Amino acid sequence: xxxxxxxxxxxxxxxxxxxxxxxLGNSAFAGFEEGMELAVKNKARxxxxxxxxxxxxxxxxxxxxxxxxxxxxxxxxxxxxYLLTQRFEKLPFPTVVAVRGMCLxxxxxxxxIHDIIWAGESAQFGQxxxxxxxxxxxxxxxxxxxxxxxxxxxxxxxSASPYPAKTMLEWGLINRILPDSEVEAKARSYAKQLSExxxxxxxxxxxxxxxxxxSGLSAADDMTIALAPATFDTNDMKSAVxxxxxxxxxSLFKGMTFSGT
Length: 261
What we know:
three-stranded mixed sheet; alpha/beta
């Protein structure tokens, strides 16, 4: 399906494997969905998305997805696609993506449903759908508003042009830039660290932050009251608090390990 999946301990790794452009067609989308399902099945505590070759994703496979298709076809496609993207955003563990080269159209939309985006110096990001006369079909435009603000989101979707990683870091779309030769290895190390962290706390924090972005502070406060108390009952919180009692607050920054329970 053009997708590879592996587990590295508690870390699920999904790799687009259809170079040179890793275009998003039916098989790639189905493979990405299968990778998500396997991560859940294998009880992953974090997920990392990578891509083979020089480019993360050049966007949709235009002819496969759109040639001879009408509005009804488009509606069916979007109904199926949003089931995946919205579920992915709600996964109860951190998700990280490492991007090199082109990250355009649907590729940028998939990158945006991850919690953390790391980029190589060669990365170019763009919502280029207007170049084929369509909209940001997988929610890229609205998610740009959350990440970089209304005015810059409108600029990106209207211009339908690629922007360099440096600009995207300044605008807040991505979290970090690294040399191309290092970005995947360092993203893997970071994601591996997340996969060994307090998984239940990560899930609660992710839900709270996402609620704030989607619905505002009051919704996030309500979710905090509803979800955060459960962390008091976890082995991770109990062991960390006991460690502070026994060894002092400094011990929290010296090799803490978490069971994820």
